[in-house]
Amino acid sequence: MVGNAQSTMLKSSMSSNKILSLNECRKPSMKMLAAFGLDTSPLSAETCALAERELRETPEQVQKSLAELRQLLEEKNTMTYKDTDEYLTIFLRPTHFYAESAYNLMKRLATFKEKNEKIVANPLPREEKKLFTENNVVNVLVDRDQKNRRVLIINMGSAWDPKSLNSEQLFKVLYLIQIASLVEEETQVRGAVIIIDFHGLSTKQVMAMSPSFAMTLLLYIQEAMPLRMKEVHIVRQPFLFNMVWPMFKQFVGEKLKKRLFFHGNKMSSLHKHLDANMLPEDYGGKKPKLNYSSADWYPVLQDLQSYIADWNTYGLKK
What we know:
Elements: H1 4-15, H2 22-25, H3 45-55, H4 59-76, E1 79-80, H5 85-92, H6 99-115, H7 117-120, H8 129-133, E2 138-140, E3 150-155, H9 167-181, H10 185-190, E4 192-197, H11 203-208, H12 211-224, E5 229-235, H13 241-249, H14 254-257, E6 260-264, H15 267-270, H16 294-303, H17 305-311, E7 315-316
Parallel strand pairs: 3-4, 4-5, 5-6
Antiparallel strand pairs: 1-7, 2-3
């Protein structure tokens, strides 16, 4: 659960429009106050250095890019958006602080939202509670990996009952979790890793994975998601997976192909990318076996109700 101190820190983080200088940024990172909570502390010195090295994130470049992006948004005047440094930085980080690229990402996301209005027009945690509390399909590890990246687990095998959680609802869960992750500056810079677990895959799940679902999911990940997707790991996939993969493969671009890895039941293969010391026993790791699910993470989303409602207002002008 997110405590009062965590909520106060979260509100403080989201209300400030200030971009930290590198010296201010290099304060010791505060630890998360609970296992199921978001780390809204300032970037650590190590992460600041990484952002400068990989994303061109210096105080001078940040201010220059923010000014250029604002100018583009004002000139083109096609989108409704929140004009704060924090919000615009969410789009500048995955595009390495190139203002035009950030604008194009914002436009692609706005277009995606319009085309998929039925799913992502206005999803709110309180209205989607059952999707999180009555299913164990999507989970987030409480431990980050060895590179301090968030690790998302998607159980698309026997743990997934499409009658209880259809493919559109599954996408909605993933979408809400991704929005929540953007509260963490550490995750904005470090990015995220996905483990897709196909253990116990049967024809029931195969039938639920339509070409339209595959296209929507991969289009969002590759074209419209304002988060650095570092790696996708496919594990415990049975022979039946060969019926599913061609449907997804046709939508996978060259960039994602380089970040996509297939391991089967060979957890030693997974450990070449994700340190076993940071993984649960379920994946051959040294952490305890998973005993939590998205139900335990739901209060975090509930705490972000206003933030997500605000995010839902962004999009193409009508």
